[in-house]
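Methods — Computational structure assignment.
A single polypeptide chain was analysed. Its primary sequence is given first, followed by the predicted tertiary structure written as C-alpha cells.
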Amino acid sequence: MPASDEVDRIVDAWARERPDLDVTPLQVLSRVDRLARHLDRARRTAFTASGLEPWEFDVLAALRRAGSPYQLSPKALLQQTLVSSGTMTNRIDRLVERQLVERRTDPHDGRGVLVVMTALGREQVDAAITVLVADEAEMLAGLSRADQERLSALLRKLSLDFDD
C-alpha cells in the first residue's frame, strides 16, 4: 500500500470525529484541491519568470492558440477566459499599455474590434508555455505515461459536467 499523505490524515480525523458522515469524497477532491494549489504556485513561477501575470498568460495563450495572425474578438476572449466583459476590457487595456496586444478594427465588421497579439506578446507567452510544460512534466514524473493517461481520462470524465 502506498505511503499515507496529509489527505489520509485529514480523512481519518474526520471519520473519527464525524462517523455519521461519508467522507470518502474528500479522498479525491481534497487531493485535487491540494494539487491545484501546488500547480498554481508552479504556474505563477513560470509566468513570473517570463514577465507575465497569470491573467496576462490566460489572454495571450488564448490568442496564441488561435493561430496566426493571433487575433480574437473580445467576446471570444471572454468565452475562453471565463471573465466578465468589464474585466476583459480592463485586461485588454492593460495588455495594450504593456505593448503585448493591440486593438484593431475588424476588417469584416467596421464596428467590431479585434485583439491582436504583438511580437512581444508572442515572445513572452512562448517563453512562459515552454517553462510551464517543463515544470508540469516534472510534477508528473512520478507517474508512468499510462498512469498519466488514466488520470487524465478520469479527470476529463469528472470535469465534463462543469464545462457545459
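Note: The chain has two domains: 1-49, 53-139.
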